[in-house]
Amino acid sequence: MKMSKQFPLNALRAFESAARQMSFTKAGEELGLTQTAVSYQIKLLEDTIGEPLFLRRPRQVTLTESGERLAPRITEAFGIMSEAITSLRDTSEGTLIIHSTATFAARWLARHLGTFQLENPGIAVRLETSHEMIDFARTEADVAIRTGKGDWPGLRSHSLMKSHFTPMLSPELAATIGGVRTPEDLLKLRIIDPGDPWWRIWFTAAGMPDVDLGGRPSSKFGAQAFEAAAAIAGHGVAILKPEFYTDDVALGRLIQPFDLLSDDGTDYWLVYPQTRRNSRKIRAFRDFMRKTMPTFRD
What sections of the protein cross the membrane (predicted)? Predict the structure, then answer.
């Protein structure tokens, strides 16, 4: 019997996508099919196996016990096939695509990628940035730098650094009020992005849980690096990760008036699909990050 008849690959792909997203409609959007076509493919697979894989209810589908047993194995199988094809492509292309938050890319990654390429001359690098949490199934990215708690299903995660934060401002702005000596002094100045939840966390840790920043002018810059630039220009106080701005402090462009650091329970992570953990270029970048960042944790 031919493989295509014994194992209906299109039906398996439809099942894998629907099981991962718990939606025939979303599976159709991912695969470029109609919801009806996805339903037909899954029914074909169920007929081949001889038992149902989904419980179909109005506006909702859930996996049966058989579906729950099958789904992770099918996902792994497609991952292995993808890895096999990618490995061949790696040999000819040798391009590592890194997706990162804009701030990490600007304040750390861009400064070290040159060293990575000198140590790995056969690997080209393409850096992409955004605040969106990418889906590796829908993007070309090989690895990503993201913030969170490291618990993303199907991904291998390595902790890079804690996401600490504290208020920072230009010394010139601090001088306009005779210096910043207490947390209350910050309230005399313009707060950059007062809606950022980091402010409430920090003020609470500083013993001021009732601070109300709601009436202040709203400002959103879209990335911490832009907020830092505004703070350096003297346009307000920003709440920043101080490890990213040690050069600006050394040059006198920013000051950190308080030693108090807070965090929201998240870290910076290096992540990539579990099924691609043995990719040559991903191994090279992982080893470089492990060697370069003292806070790297497997």
Answer: none
